[in-house]
Protein backbone atom coordinates (compact mmCIF):
# COMPACT_ATOMS: atom_id res chain seq x y z
CA UNK A 1 0.00 0.00 0.00
CA UNK A 2 1.03 3.60 -0.60
CA UNK A 3 2.25 5.84 2.15
CA UNK A 4 -0.45 7.92 3.86
CA UNK A 5 -0.95 11.47 2.67
CA UNK A 6 -1.04 14.51 4.92
CA UNK A 7 -4.33 14.26 6.80
CA UNK A 8 -6.67 17.07 7.72
CA UNK A 9 -7.90 17.66 11.26
CA UNK A 10 -11.06 15.77 10.39
CA UNK A 11 -11.04 12.08 11.34
CA UNK A 12 -10.18 9.52 8.70
CA UNK A 13 -13.35 7.72 7.56
CA UNK A 14 -13.02 4.21 6.14
CA UNK A 15 -16.16 2.52 4.81
CA UNK A 16 -16.26 -1.22 4.14
CA UNK A 17 -18.85 -2.68 1.79
CA UNK A 18 -19.51 -5.74 -0.33
CA UNK A 19 -21.98 -8.47 -1.11
CA UNK A 20 -23.56 -10.13 1.91
CA UNK A 21 -21.56 -13.07 3.24
CA UNK A 22 -18.12 -12.16 1.86
CA UNK A 23 -16.66 -11.15 5.25
CA UNK A 24 -17.01 -7.36 5.20
CA UNK A 25 -17.83 -7.15 8.92
CA UNK A 26 -14.67 -9.13 9.69
CA UNK A 27 -12.65 -6.79 7.45
CA UNK A 28 -14.19 -3.72 9.11
CA UNK A 29 -13.63 -5.02 12.65
CA UNK A 30 -10.05 -6.13 11.94
CA UNK A 31 -9.29 -2.77 10.31
CA UNK A 32 -10.47 -1.01 13.46
CA UNK A 33 -8.41 -3.36 15.66
CA UNK A 34 -5.29 -2.74 13.55
CA UNK A 35 -5.75 1.03 13.79
CA UNK A 36 -6.32 0.91 17.55
CA UNK A 37 -3.20 -1.23 18.01
CA UNK A 38 -1.24 1.46 16.15
CA UNK A 39 -2.37 4.09 18.65
CA UNK A 40 -5.30 5.52 16.68
CA UNK A 41 -8.40 6.38 18.69
CA UNK A 42 -10.93 4.42 16.65
CA UNK A 43 -14.62 3.62 16.53
CA UNK A 44 -16.13 0.98 14.25
CA UNK A 45 -19.85 1.39 13.71
CA UNK A 46 -22.57 -0.62 11.99
CA UNK A 47 -25.99 0.54 10.82
CA UNK A 48 -26.93 -2.77 9.21
CA UNK A 49 -30.18 -3.94 10.80
CA UNK A 50 -28.69 -7.46 10.95
CA UNK A 51 -25.92 -6.46 13.37
CA UNK A 52 -22.92 -8.76 13.69
CA UNK A 53 -20.18 -6.47 15.04
CA UNK A 54 -20.91 -7.58 18.59
CA UNK A 55 -20.49 -11.18 17.43
CA UNK A 56 -17.13 -10.33 15.81
CA UNK A 57 -15.87 -8.88 19.07
CA UNK A 58 -17.50 -11.69 21.07
CA UNK A 59 -19.34 -9.20 23.25
CA UNK A 60 -21.72 -10.68 25.81
CA UNK A 61 -25.43 -10.21 25.16
CA UNK A 62 -25.85 -8.52 28.54
CA UNK A 63 -23.39 -5.75 27.64
CA UNK A 64 -24.87 -5.44 24.15
CA UNK A 65 -28.46 -5.16 25.38
CA UNK A 66 -27.61 -2.35 27.81
CA UNK A 67 -25.81 -0.29 25.14
CA UNK A 68 -29.06 0.72 23.38
CA UNK A 69 -27.23 1.84 20.27
CA UNK A 70 -24.50 3.79 22.09
CA UNK A 71 -20.73 3.18 21.73
CA UNK A 72 -19.28 0.26 23.70
CA UNK A 73 -15.67 0.42 24.93
CA UNK A 74 -13.41 -2.48 23.84
CA UNK A 75 -10.14 -0.96 25.08
CA UNK A 76 -8.57 2.48 25.53
CA UNK A 77 -8.26 3.05 21.77
CA UNK A 78 -11.24 1.13 20.43
CA UNK A 79 -15.02 1.52 20.63
CA UNK A 80 -17.72 -0.17 18.61
CA UNK A 81 -21.30 0.92 17.99
CA UNK A 82 -24.32 -0.89 16.58
CA UNK A 83 -26.99 1.68 15.83
CA UNK A 84 -30.41 0.94 17.29
CA UNK A 85 -32.83 2.79 15.03
CA UNK A 86 -35.85 2.78 17.35
CA UNK A 87 -33.82 3.96 20.35
CA UNK A 88 -32.38 6.78 18.23
CA UNK A 89 -35.81 7.75 16.93
CA UNK A 90 -37.25 7.98 20.42
CA UNK A 91 -34.23 9.89 21.76
CA UNK A 92 -33.77 12.39 18.94
CA UNK A 93 -36.61 12.20 16.42
CA UNK A 94 -39.61 12.10 18.77
CA UNK A 95 -41.82 14.48 16.78
CA UNK A 96 -41.10 12.83 13.44
CA UNK A 97 -41.41 9.30 14.85
CA UNK A 98 -44.74 10.02 16.58
CA UNK A 99 -46.23 11.54 13.43
CA UNK A 100 -45.30 8.61 11.19
CA UNK A 101 -46.58 6.12 13.77
CA UNK A 102 -49.83 8.10 14.08
CA UNK A 103 -50.36 7.99 10.31
CA UNK A 104 -49.88 4.22 10.32
CA UNK A 105 -52.34 3.77 13.21
CA UNK A 106 -54.81 5.92 11.27
CA UNK A 107 -54.28 3.57 8.34
CA UNK A 108 -55.44 0.62 10.44
CA UNK A 109 -52.22 -0.78 11.92
CA UNK A 110 -52.04 -1.93 15.53
CA UNK A 111 -50.18 0.54 17.78
CA UNK A 112 -47.18 -1.70 18.44
CA UNK A 113 -46.97 -2.73 14.78
CA UNK A 114 -47.20 0.94 13.78
CA UNK A 115 -44.26 1.81 16.03
CA UNK A 116 -42.20 -0.89 14.33
CA UNK A 117 -43.31 0.16 10.84
CA UNK A 118 -42.53 3.82 11.61
CA UNK A 119 -38.87 2.94 11.11
CA UNK A 120 -38.94 3.95 7.45
CA UNK A 121 -36.28 2.77 4.95
CA UNK A 122 -33.30 5.09 5.03
CA UNK A 123 -33.66 6.19 8.66
CA UNK A 124 -30.71 4.04 9.72
CA UNK A 125 -28.63 5.72 7.00
CA UNK A 126 -29.48 9.19 8.25
CA UNK A 127 -28.78 8.22 11.87
CA UNK A 128 -25.38 6.80 10.87
CA UNK A 129 -24.56 10.03 9.02
CA UNK A 130 -25.59 12.07 12.06
CA UNK A 131 -23.20 10.08 14.25
CA UNK A 132 -20.36 10.40 11.75
CA UNK A 133 -20.88 14.17 11.59
CA UNK A 134 -21.12 14.40 15.38
CA UNK A 135 -17.89 12.45 15.93
CA UNK A 136 -16.11 14.55 13.29
CA UNK A 137 -17.17 17.79 14.99
CA UNK A 138 -16.29 16.56 18.47
CA UNK A 139 -12.88 15.32 17.33
CA UNK A 140 -12.80 12.44 19.82
CA UNK A 141 -11.77 9.81 17.24
CA UNK A 142 -8.82 9.70 14.85
CA UNK A 143 -10.55 7.17 12.63
CA UNK A 144 -14.14 6.10 12.02
CA UNK A 145 -14.59 2.68 10.41
CA UNK A 146 -18.07 2.09 8.98
CA UNK A 147 -19.25 -1.49 8.55
CA UNK A 148 -21.78 -0.92 5.79
CA UNK A 149 -24.73 -3.18 4.99
CA UNK A 150 -24.74 -5.17 1.72
CA UNK A 151 -24.02 -3.27 -1.48
CA UNK A 152 -27.47 -1.98 -2.47
CA UNK A 153 -28.17 -0.59 1.02
CA UNK A 154 -24.68 0.94 1.11
CA UNK A 155 -25.44 2.78 -2.13
CA UNK A 156 -28.59 4.19 -0.56
CA UNK A 157 -26.46 5.35 2.38
CA UNK A 158 -24.05 7.36 0.21
CA UNK A 159 -26.83 8.76 -2.01
CA UNK A 160 -29.34 9.78 0.64
CA UNK A 161 -27.62 13.10 1.39
CA UNK A 162 -28.29 14.21 -2.19
CA UNK A 163 -31.97 13.31 -1.77
CA UNK A 164 -32.18 15.23 1.51
CA UNK A 165 -30.45 18.25 -0.03
CA UNK A 166 -32.95 18.22 -2.91
CA UNK A 167 -35.90 18.04 -0.48
CA UNK A 168 -34.59 20.90 1.66
CA UNK A 169 -34.02 23.11 -1.39
CA UNK A 170 -37.21 22.24 -3.27
CA UNK A 171 -39.92 21.08 -0.87
CA UNK A 172 -39.41 21.63 2.86
CA UNK A 173 -40.52 25.28 3.03
CA UNK A 174 -43.43 24.64 0.66
CA UNK A 175 -44.66 21.59 2.58
CA UNK A 176 -44.42 23.50 5.86
CA UNK A 177 -46.39 26.43 4.42
CA UNK A 178 -49.09 24.21 2.89
CA UNK A 179 -49.57 22.29 6.15
CA UNK A 180 -49.92 25.54 8.14
CA UNK A 181 -52.68 26.68 5.75
CA UNK A 182 -54.56 23.38 5.65
CA UNK A 183 -54.56 22.63 9.41
CA UNK A 184 -57.11 25.33 10.38
CA UNK A 185 -59.24 24.47 7.33
CA UNK A 186 -59.30 20.82 8.38
CA UNK A 187 -60.46 21.81 11.87
CA UNK A 188 -63.17 24.11 10.50
CA UNK A 189 -64.66 21.45 8.23
CA UNK A 190 -64.39 18.64 10.74
CA UNK A 191 -61.43 16.94 9.11
CA UNK A 192 -58.86 14.99 11.07
CA UNK A 193 -56.33 17.80 11.47
CA UNK A 194 -53.96 15.53 13.34
CA UNK A 195 -53.33 13.69 10.07
CA UNK A 196 -51.50 16.83 8.98
CA UNK A 197 -48.08 17.27 10.59
CA UNK A 198 -47.80 19.96 13.23
CA UNK A 199 -45.20 22.67 12.79
CA UNK A 200 -43.03 20.90 15.35
CA UNK A 201 -42.63 18.07 12.83
CA UNK A 202 -41.13 20.43 10.24
CA UNK A 203 -39.03 22.17 12.89
CA UNK A 204 -37.64 18.77 13.91
CA UNK A 205 -36.86 17.96 10.27
CA UNK A 206 -35.14 21.33 9.80
CA UNK A 207 -33.02 20.81 12.92
CA UNK A 208 -32.19 17.28 11.80
CA UNK A 209 -31.04 18.42 8.37
CA UNK A 210 -28.92 21.18 9.92
CA UNK A 211 -27.10 18.53 11.96
CA UNK A 212 -26.11 16.87 8.68
CA UNK A 213 -24.45 20.02 7.38
CA UNK A 214 -20.91 19.29 6.23
CA UNK A 215 -21.12 15.50 6.13
CA UNK A 216 -21.46 15.31 2.33
CA UNK A 217 -18.27 17.34 1.85
CA UNK A 218 -16.43 14.92 4.16
CA UNK A 219 -17.68 11.85 2.31
CA UNK A 220 -16.60 13.32 -1.03
CA UNK A 221 -13.14 14.37 0.17
CA UNK A 222 -10.72 11.56 -0.79
CA UNK A 223 -8.18 12.70 1.81
CA UNK A 224 -10.80 12.04 4.52
CA UNK A 225 -13.12 9.31 3.26
CA UNK A 226 -12.58 6.21 1.18
CA UNK A 227 -14.34 2.92 0.70
CA UNK A 228 -12.95 -0.61 0.57
CA UNK A 229 -14.82 -3.29 -1.34
CA UNK A 230 -14.70 -6.86 -0.04
CA UNK A 231 -15.18 -9.72 -2.46
CA UNK A 232 -14.26 -13.37 -3.00
CA UNK A 233 -12.67 -14.96 -6.07
CA UNK A 234 -16.00 -16.00 -7.54
CA UNK A 235 -17.24 -14.74 -10.91
CA UNK A 236 -20.73 -13.68 -9.78
CA UNK A 237 -19.44 -11.87 -6.69
CA UNK A 238 -16.71 -10.10 -8.67
CA UNK A 239 -19.32 -8.90 -11.19
CA UNK A 240 -21.33 -7.36 -8.35
CA UNK A 241 -18.12 -5.78 -7.03
CA UNK A 242 -17.55 -4.19 -10.45
CA UNK A 243 -21.04 -2.70 -10.42
CA UNK A 244 -20.56 -1.46 -6.86
CA UNK A 245 -17.27 0.20 -7.85
CA UNK A 246 -19.05 2.04 -10.68
CA UNK A 247 -22.01 3.17 -8.57
CA UNK A 248 -19.89 4.35 -5.63
CA UNK A 249 -17.88 6.43 -8.10
CA UNK A 250 -21.12 7.84 -9.49
CA UNK A 251 -22.02 9.05 -5.99
CA UNK A 252 -18.60 10.65 -5.49
CA UNK A 253 -17.08 8.04 -3.16
CA UNK A 254 -13.41 7.17 -3.59
CA UNK A 255 -12.74 3.41 -3.67
CA UNK A 256 -9.16 2.96 -2.46
CA UNK A 257 -8.92 -0.80 -2.07
CA UNK A 258 -10.38 -4.18 -2.98
CA UNK A 259 -10.03 -7.08 -0.53
CA UNK A 260 -10.26 -10.59 -1.99
CA UNK A 261 -11.18 -12.80 0.96
CA UNK A 262 -11.04 -16.58 1.53
CA UNK A 263 -8.24 -17.52 -0.86
CA UNK A 264 -7.60 -21.28 -0.61
CA UNK A 265 -4.10 -22.67 0.11
CA UNK A 266 -2.16 -23.54 -3.06
CA UNK A 267 -0.52 -26.66 -1.61
CA UNK A 268 -3.77 -28.54 -0.88
CA UNK A 269 -4.38 -31.10 -3.64
CA UNK A 270 -8.01 -31.59 -2.61
CA UNK A 271 -8.82 -27.99 -3.60
CA UNK A 272 -6.58 -27.96 -6.71
CA UNK A 273 -9.37 -27.08 -9.16
CA UNK A 274 -10.76 -24.41 -6.84
CA UNK A 275 -7.27 -22.97 -6.38
CA UNK A 276 -6.79 -22.81 -10.15
CA UNK A 277 -10.18 -21.13 -10.58
CA UNK A 278 -9.40 -18.60 -7.83
CA UNK A 279 -6.00 -17.81 -9.37
CA UNK A 280 -7.62 -17.07 -12.72
CA UNK A 281 -10.29 -14.91 -11.10
CA UNK A 282 -7.65 -13.03 -9.08
CA UNK A 283 -5.90 -12.14 -12.35
CA UNK A 284 -9.24 -10.87 -13.62
CA UNK A 285 -9.73 -8.78 -10.47
CA UNK A 286 -6.31 -7.16 -10.97
CA UNK A 287 -7.09 -6.39 -14.61
CA UNK A 288 -10.50 -4.97 -13.69
CA UNK A 289 -9.49 -2.70 -10.81
CA UNK A 290 -5.88 -1.70 -11.54
CA UNK A 291 -4.46 0.69 -10.27
CA UNK A 292 -6.68 0.32 -7.17
CA UNK A 293 -4.67 -1.76 -4.65
CA UNK A 294 -5.77 -5.39 -4.30
CA UNK A 295 -5.30 -7.26 -0.99
CA UNK A 296 -5.80 -10.99 -0.50
CA UNK A 297 -6.65 -12.83 2.70
CA UNK A 298 -6.34 -16.63 3.02
CA UNK A 299 -9.23 -18.85 4.00
CA UNK A 300 -9.23 -18.97 7.81
CA UNK A 301 -8.96 -22.28 9.67
CA UNK A 302 -11.54 -21.19 12.23
CA UNK A 303 -14.12 -18.45 12.63
CA UNK A 304 -12.75 -14.95 13.21
CA UNK A 305 -14.28 -14.04 16.57
CA UNK A 306 -12.67 -12.05 19.39
CA UNK A 307 -9.75 -9.63 19.52
CA UNK A 308 -7.01 -12.22 19.11
CA UNK A 309 -8.47 -13.69 15.92
CA UNK A 310 -9.24 -10.22 14.55
CA UNK A 311 -5.60 -9.23 15.14
CA UNK A 312 -4.44 -12.32 13.22
CA UNK A 313 -6.79 -11.47 10.36
CA UNK A 314 -5.51 -7.87 10.34
CA UNK A 315 -1.92 -9.15 10.07
CA UNK A 316 -2.89 -11.02 6.88
CA UNK A 317 -4.70 -7.96 5.55
CA UNK A 318 -2.24 -5.16 6.35
CA UNK A 319 1.08 -6.60 7.48
CA UNK A 320 3.21 -3.60 8.47
CA UNK A 321 1.36 -1.07 6.28
CA UNK A 322 -0.86 1.73 7.57
CA UNK A 323 -4.53 0.65 7.55
CA UNK A 324 -5.58 4.30 7.26
CA UNK A 325 -3.40 5.10 4.24
CA UNK A 326 -5.24 6.76 1.35
CA UNK A 327 -4.54 4.58 -1.66
CA UNK A 328 -5.84 6.62 -4.58
CA UNK A 329 -4.69 9.53 -6.71
CA UNK A 330 -7.86 11.59 -6.73
CA UNK A 331 -11.58 12.07 -6.38
CA UNK A 332 -14.03 10.20 -8.61
CA UNK A 333 -15.44 13.42 -10.06
CA UNK A 334 -14.03 16.86 -10.84
CA UNK A 335 -15.09 20.22 -12.27
CA UNK A 336 -12.54 21.75 -14.68
CA UNK A 337 -12.55 25.27 -16.13
CA UNK A 338 -11.63 24.80 -19.81
CA UNK A 339 -12.06 28.49 -20.71
CA UNK A 340 -14.11 31.51 -19.64
CA UNK A 341 -17.00 30.13 -21.69
CA UNK A 342 -16.65 26.40 -21.05
CA UNK A 343 -16.49 24.04 -18.06
CA UNK A 344 -16.13 20.27 -17.88
CA UNK A 345 -17.60 17.86 -15.33
CA UNK A 346 -15.76 14.51 -15.27
CA UNK A 347 -17.15 11.46 -13.44
CA UNK A 348 -15.14 8.23 -13.23
CA UNK A 349 -17.53 5.49 -14.38
CA UNK A 350 -15.44 2.40 -15.09
CA UNK A 351 -17.61 -0.58 -16.11
CA UNK A 352 -20.57 1.69 -16.97
CA UNK A 353 -22.52 0.45 -20.03
CA UNK A 354 -22.75 3.47 -22.35
CA UNK A 355 -26.27 2.66 -23.51
CA UNK A 356 -27.59 2.74 -19.92
CA UNK A 357 -26.29 6.22 -19.05
CA UNK A 358 -29.01 8.89 -19.05
CA UNK A 359 -28.36 12.59 -18.40
CA UNK A 360 -30.98 15.27 -17.81
CA UNK A 361 -31.09 18.66 -16.18
CA UNK A 362 -33.47 20.98 -14.34
CA UNK A 363 -31.95 24.41 -13.69
CA UNK A 364 -29.14 23.88 -11.15
CA UNK A 365 -29.79 20.13 -10.79
CA UNK A 366 -28.02 17.66 -13.08
CA UNK A 367 -29.42 14.12 -13.07
CA UNK A 368 -27.20 11.17 -14.02
CA UNK A 369 -28.91 7.79 -14.15
CA UNK A 370 -27.34 4.37 -14.72
CA UNK A 371 -29.84 1.54 -14.64
CA UNK A 372 -31.92 1.90 -11.47
CA UNK A 373 -29.51 4.29 -9.71
CA UNK A 374 -29.71 8.05 -10.08
CA UNK A 375 -27.55 10.83 -8.71
CA UNK A 376 -28.59 14.47 -8.38
CA UNK A 377 -25.59 16.79 -8.75
CA UNK A 378 -26.04 20.38 -7.61
CA UNK A 379 -24.11 22.43 -10.15
CA UNK A 380 -21.80 25.25 -9.00
CA UNK A 381 -23.21 28.74 -9.50
CA UNK A 382 -20.78 29.41 -12.35
CA UNK A 383 -22.37 26.56 -14.35
CA UNK A 384 -26.06 27.24 -13.65
CA UNK A 385 -26.26 29.93 -16.37
CA UNK A 386 -24.45 27.70 -18.88
CA UNK A 387 -26.10 25.28 -21.28
CA UNK A 388 -25.36 21.57 -21.20
CA UNK A 389 -23.35 21.15 -24.40
CA UNK A 390 -23.02 17.39 -24.69
CA UNK A 391 -21.56 14.35 -22.97
CA UNK A 392 -19.31 11.47 -23.94
CA UNK A 393 -17.30 8.64 -22.42
CA UNK A 394 -13.54 9.20 -22.54
CA UNK A 395 -11.93 6.00 -21.30
CA UNK A 396 -13.27 5.42 -17.78
CA UNK A 397 -14.61 8.97 -17.50
CA UNK A 398 -18.00 10.44 -18.36
CA UNK A 399 -17.32 14.00 -19.54
CA UNK A 400 -20.19 16.52 -19.53
CA UNK A 401 -19.56 19.93 -21.10
CA UNK A 402 -21.17 23.23 -20.17
CA UNK A 403 -20.97 26.32 -22.39
CA UNK A 404 -22.18 29.90 -22.21
CA UNK A 405 -24.86 30.81 -24.70
CA UNK A 406 -23.85 33.84 -26.78
CA UNK A 407 -26.81 35.71 -28.15
TrEMBL record:
<dbReference type="GO" id="GO:0016887">
    <property type="term" value="F:ATP hydrolysis activity"/>
</dbReference>
<keyword id="KW-1278">Translocase</keyword>
<dbReference type="Pfam" id="PF17886">
    <property type="entry name" value="ArsA_HSP20"/>
</dbReference>
<dbReference type="InterPro" id="IPR027417">
    <property type="entry name" value="P-loop_NTPase"/>
</dbReference>
<dbReference type="GO" id="GO:0015446">
    <property type="term" value="F:ATPase-coupled arsenite transmembrane transporter activity"/>
</dbReference>
<feature type="domain" description="ArsA HSP20-like">
    <location>
        <begin position="341"/>
        <end position="402"/>
    </location>
</feature>
<dbReference type="InterPro" id="IPR016300">
    <property type="entry name" value="ATPase_ArsA/GET3"/>
</dbReference>
<dbReference type="InterPro" id="IPR040612">
    <property type="entry name" value="ArsA_HSP20-like"/>
</dbReference>
<comment type="similarity">
    <text>Belongs to the arsA ATPase family.</text>
</comment>
<dbReference type="InterPro" id="IPR025723">
    <property type="entry name" value="ArsA/GET3_ATPase-like"/>
</dbReference>
<keyword id="KW-0059">Arsenical resistance</keyword>
<protein>
    <recommendedName>
        <fullName>arsenite-transporting ATPase</fullName>
        <ecNumber>7.3.2.7</ecNumber>
    </recommendedName>
</protein>
<keyword id="KW-0067">ATP-binding</keyword>
<dbReference type="InterPro" id="IPR008978">
    <property type="entry name" value="HSP20-like_chaperone"/>
</dbReference>
<dbReference type="Pfam" id="PF02374">
    <property type="entry name" value="ArsA_ATPase"/>
</dbReference>
<feature type="domain" description="ArsA/GET3 Anion-transporting ATPase-like">
    <location>
        <begin position="12"/>
        <end position="318"/>
    </location>
</feature>
<comment type="function">
    <text>Anion-transporting ATPase. Catalyzes the extrusion of arsenite.</text>
</comment>
<keyword id="KW-0547">Nucleotide-binding</keyword>
<dbReference type="GO" id="GO:0005524">
    <property type="term" value="F:ATP binding"/>
</dbReference>
Amino acid sequence: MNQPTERSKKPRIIMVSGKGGVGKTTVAASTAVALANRGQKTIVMSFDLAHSLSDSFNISEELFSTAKGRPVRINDNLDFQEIDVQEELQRNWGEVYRYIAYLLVGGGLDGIVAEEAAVMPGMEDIIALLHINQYAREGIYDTIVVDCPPTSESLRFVSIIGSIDWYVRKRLKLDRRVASVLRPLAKRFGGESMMLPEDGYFAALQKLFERLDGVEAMLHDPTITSLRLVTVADRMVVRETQRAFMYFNLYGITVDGVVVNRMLPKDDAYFARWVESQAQMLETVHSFFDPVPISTVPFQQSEVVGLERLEEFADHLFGDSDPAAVNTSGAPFTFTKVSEDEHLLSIRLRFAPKDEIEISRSNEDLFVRIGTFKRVILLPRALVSMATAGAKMNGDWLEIRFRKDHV
